[in-house]
Write a structure and sequence with these properties.
The chain is an alpha+beta fold. It contains 16 helices and 17 strands. The structure holds flavin-adenine dinucleotide, D-malate and zinc ion.
Length: 454
Amino acid sequence: MTDHLAARVAGVVGPEHVLRDADVKASYETDWTRRYSGDARFVVRPGDTAELAESLRILTEAGVPVVPQGGNTGLVGGGVPRGGEVVVSSSRLSSLGEVDAVAGEVTVGAGVTLARLQEHIRAAGWNFGVDLASRDSCTIGGMIATNAGGIRVLRYGPMRAQVGGIEAARVDGSVIRRLPGLAKDNTGYDIPGLLAGSEGTLAIVTRARLRLIPQLAGRAAALLAVDGVAAALGVVSVVRAHAPSLEAAEVFFADGLDLVLRHTGLPAPFPDRAPCYLLFECAARDDPMGELVGALEAAGGFEASAVASERSQRARLWAYRERHTESINAEGVPHKLDVALPLPRLEEFEACVRGTVKKAAPEARPILFGHIADGNLHVNVLGLAADDDRATDAVLRLVAELGGSISAEHGIGVAKTRWLHLTRSESDIAAMRAIKAALDPANLLNPGVIFGKQ
Ligand code: FAD
Ligand code: MLT
Ligand code: ZN
């Protein structure tokens, strides 16, 4: 090896786990949306916590910045190099601990994918509170780093709420370890909570102790056609109140459904096209279909409906919602805005946002969908060059005016740094910078992410 630094790191992890060939590095260098990419000096794949910590120590001593990467499904460009960093991949941190049935917890490596975790714990009769459509690739470390949300937040909260303990390597090679984690532990700052949502800027997560939920065998889903967001919110509020087993409440619109049908070949769900669609799922020990149907009858206000209990039938309904991301990507490189609104302002936001996009960039094409019960809409903007921020700027300013957040669940990454000040105060940002400076004084851990270029 001619790169002296790569040779030193290879001495720790083994030469086969330091990737330097352009072809081999390529999949680590471009993000899922294809909007963000950069050259990595090399990619290192440590096999355990000690190897990762020692690699970090060597890289820090050499003053070389690093980008932590899990499954590379992040949507804000924070997990790929900007130019010259070393990518530290968690792909080999794949340990799966035995499920602790007394505590209802499990300890796993940061590189374990969500699907692998689900398979492992379901075999022991448990389930996990966070679920995302990227489950086959996204990793536990990446989900903690982004504080991932997904489709069950209304019942179980985001990733932060599932983390009972953590192990992470700091930039100087020291290791923070709160494992297995205690149900009650008021001994100072909550490090797992701090690392959740830190987007790889404070430490690299190596293992986590995760809280599990009971596996609920009874499941029922319903897809509804509704007149618009006002009607949708009316239905959601009644279903929430009448169905304690409610786990998911999702929304999408006619133009997004058209895209999904075109790219997937799925048949239309109903004979008539509707402006807006709602997808609900309930989960309970016994079949929750009666509860779901009762709640829908109490709500009324929908034009058409389809319900399903059996797994493949439910998956058929979910495909209309979950296949939005890939269908949008198939149309072009999207600008992905992931915003949260106070629920009382959601209707106003949805009524304005398409016009706001068109006014800022007439050629742009907005497609909306999201997690309606969380006030979280994904505003995907197609038809603009990757560096054309006109629509982003206008939409994020609208969000701020309405009291929302510029990122509900994807994070700031490198994509939203310019707009962080819109929904975080100067003193909030100063406090976050102080934490960053204390844990990473030389700014070597994912530089540019959250705060932009220093
Ligand atoms: P990566 O993309 O590899 O990295 C994401 C960030 O985490 C980067 O900043 C990276 O530096 C950092 N990071 C990664 N691993 C570590 C680690 N071990 N230690 C410290 N930092 C680390 N997100 C949602 O919230 N909700 C959804 O419903 C959702 N659905 C999605 C559906 C699809 C089809 C796709 C493609 C993406 C979706 N996402 C969703 C976004 C994405 O899957 C999540 O952000 C996920 O948590 C990223 O995990 P990852 O392992 O792929 O992380
Ligand atoms: C989703 O809810 O499907 C995700 O957050 C992915 C996306 O926004 O495309
Ligand atoms: Zn989402």
